[in-house]
Structure formats: C-alpha cells, structure tokens
Design a protein that fits this description.
Number of strands: 9
Structural class: alpha/beta
Distance between the termini: 37 Å
C-alpha cells in the first residue's frame, strides 16, 4: 500500500500529486493524506472520476483517503472517456480569473493555466479576447505556461482588434492573431465551450 502526504499543499497540488501516483501504480490501494475538507473533496472526486473506489477516514484534523485502483474499472472508464472525446475550446476574456481582488484574480489565472498543463486531456483551442490578450504578450506573468500549452498542441489565438486596442500587436509572444469571424466560428463548432 502506497501512501502520499499532501498536507500543507495548496490547491490543485493534492489532486495533481494523486493523479501522478495513480499513474505509477497498476492496481492496488493508495492512501492520500490531506489536511482540509476542500482538498479531501477534490481528491475524492478526482479518484472516483478515474474509476477508483474511495473510503475516507478523519483522524484529528487530517483526512485519510483510501483509494482502491483496479485495472478492470480503470479500463472501463478509459473506454467511456475515449467515447466522449470532444473538441474543447476555452474562451478567456480577461487577464484575471473571476471578479473582485486583482491580486487574487491574477494568482487564480496563473493557477488555472498551470493546471491545464497538468491535465492529460488538453483543450484544442484557447481564445483570448479583451484584456485576455495581455496573457500572451510581452511582460505576461503566465507567458511560460501559455508557451508550454502551445508546445503541447493547444492552439492559442488572440483577437487582433483587442491587441490593437491595448497596443500589443507587436508584443504578442505566443499563438496567432485572429479575428471575430474565426473566433465565433470556432466557438460554434466546439463540442464544449468553457469560460473560466
């Protein structure tokens, strides 16, 4: 039985660590230790989405998740996932994630893009409009994540009108310049459109 201690890790690291460890073991039981209800729920949902059985035990302030991975269940889940393969487009219309505190929004956007990198199934296309184009431009705090996503096969497109408005056309560092027709066309053709 393998045990991983995810106490003190910030979201989404406990899920990513669990994912990596589950990929290493063919089958058997894995124990994941977390120190808050949010991480417990996130790890539980992830493990169940991978076809694993999960039992949770609370010991003091900590949560112990006993994850049982069986090859048959995992193969069944993989077949179901393959059948559901779809074209996924992510539409980002701001350089911040959510509304409210600017520093928090900046941190959340960085975390969102970093997490996309860690996912096995990446989106097909990332559309950047309005201040979202700042993310792919010179001086962006998340430029390295976008470059890595591009290298992983994610098509990154930025609105040309938006780049002109922010005077960033010459400072675009990753992806291509697009137009409203192309952007709307890809949104219509997407099987799943996500706006974080």
């Amino acid at each position: 039985m393998k045990e991983i201690d995810c106490r003190g890790m910030s979201c989404p690291q406990p899920v990513i660590t669990t994912k990596q460890t589950l990929e290493e073991i063919k089958e058997g039981e894995l124990v994941v230790i977390v120190d808050n209800p949010s991480s417990c729920g996130n790890v539980e949902r992830f493990a169940k989405s991978q076809g694993c059985d999960v039992k949770i035990e609370k010991k003091g302030e900590d949560f112990y998740l006993y994850i049982n991975k069986t090859t048959a269940k995992v193969e069944d889940e993989k077949i179901k996932k393959d059948e559901k393969a779809r074209k996924v487009v992510i539409y980002i219309n701001s350089d911040l994630l959510g509304s409210g505190d600017e520093a928090l929004g900046s941190f959340l956007m960085k975390s969102f893009l970093k997490t996309l990198l860690d996912l096995e199934k990446k989106p097909d296309r990332l559309i950047l409009i309005n201040s979202g184009v700042k993310l792919a431009s010179e001086g962006s705090r998340v430029l390295e994540h976008l470059i890595s996503l591009s290298e992983a096969g994610v098509e990154i497109v930025s609105c040309g009108t938006c780049l002109d408005f922010y005077k960033l056309r010459e400072k675009l560092k990753v992806g291509t310049i697009s137009n409203m027709y192309d952007i709307i066309q890809s949104m219509i053709e997407a099987d799943r459109l996500i706006q974080p």
